[in-house]
């Protein structure tokens, strides 16, 4: 198996169970209309779960975030128990011993826009071992609005994991064009945000830090797991508003995400950042060992 997909009705809270048969399809199978809101407008939400040894990772955190995305997008409230069961059944089909991931997609609906529907894609994870040890050269990219804009303009869907990722992909292309591996978004008044597909985490002495999700970023499930681990190890953790000088002065920094896990950062706009290989390996060993 390299990638298979499953289509099913979107389980809505308070409605009867959807009881899907979960027949696997080839990823190239035509399962949705070209007029689907997801394909036409990127109008929907998604989650990407790590799958290790046939088990979903961080299930509750991902599904809670999906419910928040649906609320922000004014989609029906998902039945999280049913979604957990469906996703666990799909994850159990992963090839044993192969790091995998599951993308759960909720679309606003088909041509008549009547009912949201869902699908999931189970794929083998690309080999990120090089990035996890070599690290990423990062450039900063200004999103063009101040931190204060986020609380004022809630309709902008800040914090929702929507399907509209064209700007995220453009950020990665711009980073490559400028000889870097990834981009770190900032507000126009200079506060660090997140990367197009991951959360910023850094260590300052005995404290693990990450930008406050209220600055208009996704609240990363992997970042939350890293904070839980850090506390168990005796570190303190904090969310805050940070600037590039905070990051340049850090003792170690990572981009974290469910699929790539913790990838160390080696530079910001060409200025070197400190890598802590031992700490990176410990964090990734913990992240890979999760079975929840
Ligand atoms: N921020 C963005 C924009 C993302 O797309 C992602 C993951 O895809 C993350 C952060 C990291 O989130 P998580 O750790 O839950 O995968």
From TrEMBL:
GO molecular function, one term: 4-amino-4-deoxychorismate lyase activity
EC number: 4.1.3.38
Matches recorded under InterPro entries: Aminotrans_IV, Aminotransferase-like, BCAT-like_C, BCAT-like_N, Class-IV_PLP-Dep_Aminotrnsfr
Domain of life: Bacteria
Root EC class: lyase
One of the Pfam families matching this protein, by short name: Aminotran_4
Keywords tagged on the record: Lyase
Family: Belongs to the class-IV pyridoxal-phosphate-dependent aminotransferase family.
Name the UniProt record assigns to this protein: 4-amino-4-deoxychorismate lyase
Protein source organism: Microbacterium amylolyticum
